[in-house]
Amino acid sequence: MRVFIIAGEPSGDKLGGALMAGLKTLVPDVTFDGIGGDEMQAQGLTSRFDMSELSIMGIMEVLPKYRHLKRRIAQTAQAVTDTAPDVMITIDSPDFCLRVARLVKASGTTRTVHYVAPTVWAWRPKRAVHMAQVIDHVLALFPFEPPYMQAAGMDCDFVGHPVVSEPQPTAEEVARFRVQYGMEAADPLLLVLPGSRRGEVARLAPRLGAALKPVLQAHPKLRVVVPAAAPVAGMVIDAVAGWPLVPKVLDPRGLDVETAASAKRVAFAAADAALAASGTVALELAAADTPMVSAYDMNWLSRRIVQRMMQIDTANLINIVSETRTVPEFIGANCRSDLIARGVLDLLNDLEPQRAAMQTTMDLLGRQGEDPGLRAARAVLARL
């Protein structure tokens, strides 16, 4: 069996790695081609080019890269046509992946599977209809998504989210982490996560750093850890150098995938709370039972366009899946350091209200069921 698989950012790479592992379990002679990061490469993929070229978000951010991305889209689609795989699996990154799928469908009959349903329940509902023109089958992360995709004419299976099957650190590992970094007396230990894309780090890191000043005044024993994504680790190190409290940056570069992932999970479990860019990191924090504050902003024009299209009042996945609003968010015009600081202080004063919502989220995403990567692999194979 030959699979062409594409991911364009770290969260997609994680999904792709789990799916590939599941396919290898069910079809031992499967072979892979395509584009992915460290986790997919650890499962046997030789990426055709560096996945970080695709980690661009926001309308104004894409424009300067448009010609290069257009060439990459054409090159990737041609590679699929030339290799004639049994299935092409694209993972999230719709601006790139769905354009590749359109070219592939125009030139042949390759079956197309897209992993991660578009958030039509949040904004731009017509995306499902357009997507159905080029995608045969959708693998959904959330249990409420299949009806939206099926109504548009696609097969769709809820497969859960791989975060629910990730191993959680022991109390001994957490204690060693705190001692290793001199944080055993931290009061509290705060994670700060400024994003995994360059644009996110550039916009958010200064604001998150400024938000720490009043938090430090209220909690002088506060310690900060910043787990950096490999594609932006150098940028993160530079960005935090001017913060009022220079944090410990966990740099995954030079580490193998499993070691880096384990170190990140231990940091998440060791922290009392987190200040994080909106995104799938919210689910990782929930899996570690770490309460959070969310913040996010885009380029001004991108922000205005997205705001007009939004159909939901929250961007945090814990709030969405649990149908609560327990995670405080500072989005767009409200992504200001003074407001963020107040949100962090309020959270540190009472960490408990979020925990029930986080537990509900993990249960709804399949925490008690089969490994989501294996479940996704079964879904792909069942419909070939």
What does this structure look like?
- It is built from 17 helices and twelve strands.
- The chain is α/β, with parallel strands linked by helices and 384 residues long.
- Helix 1 packs across helix 17 (372-382) and helix 9 runs parallel beside helix 10 (233-240).
- It is 47% helix and 14% strand.
- The model has no long low-confidence stretch (mean pLDDT 91).
- The strands form two sheets. A six-stranded parallel β-sheet has the order 2-1-3-4-5-6, sandwiched between helices.
List strands and helices in order, with pairings.
Layout: E1 2-7, H1 10-26, E2 31-35, H2 38-42, H3 59-62, H4 66-83, E3 87-91, H5 94-107, E4 111-115, H6 127-131, E5 137-140, H7 146-151, E6 155-158, H8 171-180, E7 189-193, H9 198-218, E8 223-227, H10 233-240, E9 248-250, H11 257-270, E10 273-277, H12 281-287, E11 292-296, H13 300-309, H14 317-322, E12 329-331, H15 337-349, H16 353-364, H17 372-382
Parallel strand pairs: 1-2, 1-3, 3-4, 4-5, 5-6, 7-8, 7-10, 8-9, 10-11, 11-12
Give a short summary of the structure.
Belongs to the LpxB family. This protein has a six-stranded parallel beta sheet with strand order 2-1-3-4-5-6, with helices on both faces. A six-stranded parallel beta sheet has the order 9-8-7-10-11-12, sandwiched between helices.
